[in-house]
Amino acid sequence: MANIQAEIENCVLVHEGFTFHVRSLPGLDDDLPPVICIGGAFQSIGYWKATADYFQPQRRVLLVDLPGMGESDWLPHSYGLDYLAGCIESCLDWAGCETVDILAASYGSLVTYRFAQLYPHRVQHMALVGVMADFEEEHRRLVLEHLDRVERDEADFAEEVLEFLVSQTVRRRVRRGRAVVRVLRKQLEQLSAEEINKYVDNTRRLLNHEPLDLMNPPRVPALVFTGEHDHLTKPAWNREIAAAIPGSIFTTVRDADHLCHLEQFDTAIDLVSCFFDDHSLADVRGRTDLERF
Predict the structure, then answer these.
(1) What span, in angstroms and rounded, lies between the C-alpha atoms of 100 and 229?
(2) What does the pLDDT read at residue 41?
(3) Sign for the pseudo-dihedral over CA of 56, 60, 65, 66
(4) How is domain 2-134+210-292 classified at the CATH fold level?
(5) What is the CB-side half-sphere exposure of residue 143 using CA atoms within 13 A?
(6) Rounded to an integer, what distance in angstroms lies between the CA atom of residue 235 and that of residue 139?
(7) E strands within 144-286?
(8) For an engineered disulfide with 116, which of 155, 195, 218, 268 has Cβ 3.0 to 4.6 Å away?
(9) Which pLDDT value is given to residue 43?
(10) Confidence of residue 42 (pLDDT cuts 50, 70, 90)
């Protein structure tokens, strides 16, 4: 175990002029593909600790802060999903990984979908948590109004972001959901001006990108899920993504919403690990019905 800890690598990579951070945590079984985690808007490398601990020491784990996230460079919103998919490829090249299992949440799910379209030969499995093809008009309007308030420094930033991320149902009914709100509020209130600027550009990138191409889906094994109360990327929108990918699996997590991988960690990680290991998901507790396409 001591040797594994000593072999952790932290690296700053450059892709087309922008730097980004990667952490590699070695595993014991070289026959298993590494797991790479691609996070949401506020889920930097450090917030994957529980997931990394779960997969280690058996599997190698790669944690990535793409440009625009964490301590990586700010990225103008004119750079789209293709650029970010190229960053993932650069990370795999640096790590010497031919193929990986990808776990992606929220913002990272859109990037991962595009990566799997462009580089399907490098994906053994992908698990997408909280994804949608595009914003609905009303949803788009609310987000634009929010960004305008943030840029004018007129927003109650923490509370407005939490309104998008955590449903009132989960806040009322789920103790862990309330705990997630407390932790996230503290984190959001402590963000620097630079970090808020990154959030604004990342969100505008999502608003401006072309809708995910569901007519030409990635041909890779896929699991798509979110919380049953998700109102940011609604379950029906996740199901639409899954329905476009041949052979994919869709479900939702009970008593959770967009942050289901935090609010109901045990259920989410059981779904992902069983899927990555090609085991049945039938016995995973805390999920709704499985749909296969």
Answers:
(1) 30
(2) 78
(3) negative
(4) Rossmann fold (3.40.50)
(5) 22
(6) 15
(7) 222-227, 249-253
(8) 218
(9) 82
(10) confident
pLDDT of residue 127 exceeding 60, the answer is: yes
pLDDT band for 7, please (50, 70, 90 cuts).
confident
With beta carbons less than 8 A apart as the criterion, state whether 50 and 35 touch: no
Angle formed by the axes of helices 81-95 and 107-118, nearest 10°? 70
Residue in the block written with tokens 């402590």 = 190
> Over the stretch 220-243, which tens digit does the pLDDT of each residue have?
999 999 999 999 999 999 999 999
> Tokens for 98?
């031919």
Average pLDDT, the chain: 95
**CA angle, 219 then 125 then 15, to 5°:** 85
76, 201 in Cβ contact below 8 A? yes
Tokens linked to 241: 């993504």
Furthest-apart CA atoms within the chain: distance in Å: 53
Residues in the chain, total:
293
Q: Residue 118: phi, psi to the nearest 5? A: -80, -35
Closest CA to 13 of 65, 69, 75, 85: 65
Lookup: tokens for 272? 């992902």
- 188 Cβ contact list (under 8 Å, min separation 6): 42, 157, 158, 161, 162
| Mean pLDDT confidence for 151-161 | 95
Residue among 80, 7, 70, 14 at smallest CA distance from 37? 70
- Whether residue 242 contacts residue 249, with contact meaning beta carbons closer than 8 Å, is answered with yes
Q: What is the dihedral of CA 79, 82, 86, 87, to 10 degrees?
A: 40
Are the beta carbons of 81 and 43 closer than 8 angstroms?
A: no
